[in-house]
Please model this.
Amino acid sequence: MRKEIHQRSQRKNEHVKHAMHQKTGEVLSDFERVTLLHHSLPDLNLDEIDLSTMIADHHVPIPLYINAMTGGSEWTESINRKLAGVAAATGIPMAVGSMHAALRHEELSSSYSIVREVNPDGLIFANVGADVSLEGARRAVEMIDADALQIHINAPQELIMPEGDRDFKSWRANIESIIGHMEVPVIVKEVGFGMSRKALLTLNALGVRHVDISGKGGTNFARIENARRKSGDMSYLGDWGISTVRALLESQSVQSDMSVMASGGISTPLDAVKCLALGARGVGMSRMLLKSVEDAGVDETIGYVDTFQNQMKRIAVMVNAATIEELRKTPLVLDPELLSWMSQRQLV
Ligand code: FNR
Model:
């Protein structure tokens, strides 16, 4: 038992360590393939810009959230404490990392519930995998008094991880059952491999109303799991997945039925605005905020989020869009590579 807890905590620490060492731009994000059209005569003032939005049925003043990362060890508890401090000060929602460790070993639960202690009134999302039962998902939500539940779907990560899951057939039934009975809104999210239109349609048919397409271009779990393994190299899968931009293109036809959120490699306010212009209702960031709280501290990170959202508003003025709804209508120019993707995928 002790050994199992130690191994779990170790894995959580390794994920954080490897993620922090990944370099921005290691895998192309495709944001450079999308151009927002400059508008020379804005008829707006900066202080008129209102980027408030709905995330998982909750009204939020800015379209950003701290996406799922961690918990399950001493070090990750201290990270969650810091991230919760940033969420509390900036008013943005925060998801904790996968809570399976605490579902199996109650003594690890403080590394998650710390976020509720630090941020009693904030919007907090629980996080479980799709192999979890409704009962397990409910316990995770109760543990942190969560306002929504994220269910992560991470098949490539499991398959590349030597100790990962190999059975996935139960996922759809579990998601359907959780969606049908959960007391709080449920978001189904990827972990950096993106979602295809078919995956989105399948989720929609299961009753899912909120998705985070979390695409390729940022934190890369194919590379992280490969770096952790000692034998059976799978590094040739380092570019596996659908980029955040391409996954948003895949999502166009479901955006009227589902609330689509974006994450994966968002590193500048311009990336975030491009996600909104491609139809995302909110934008999640993980690794950038992890690095910021660990390298620079909580106060610096609060400043970083404030500056980030302010600069998103300035870009909104440059395209003459006062709200998220107007940003969704702003003209976009896609490069030939993305146009080819759209035509081969019959998205146009
Ligand atoms: C993650 N991510 C993640 N997602 C999830 O649903 N459950 C989890 O437990 C974790 N764990 C985790 C650990 C660490 C250290 C990182 C950096 C990320 C994935 C995360 O929520 C997001 O989908 C991706 O990281 C892509 O966003 P960024 O990091 O490119 O902004």
The pocket of FNR is lined by residues 15-16, 19, 67-70, 97-98, 127, 150, 152, 189, 191-192, 214, 218-219, 263-266, 285-288, 290 (CB under 6 Å). The first helix runs from residue 2 to 21. The chain has a mean pLDDT of 96. The chain is about 45% helix and 10% strand.
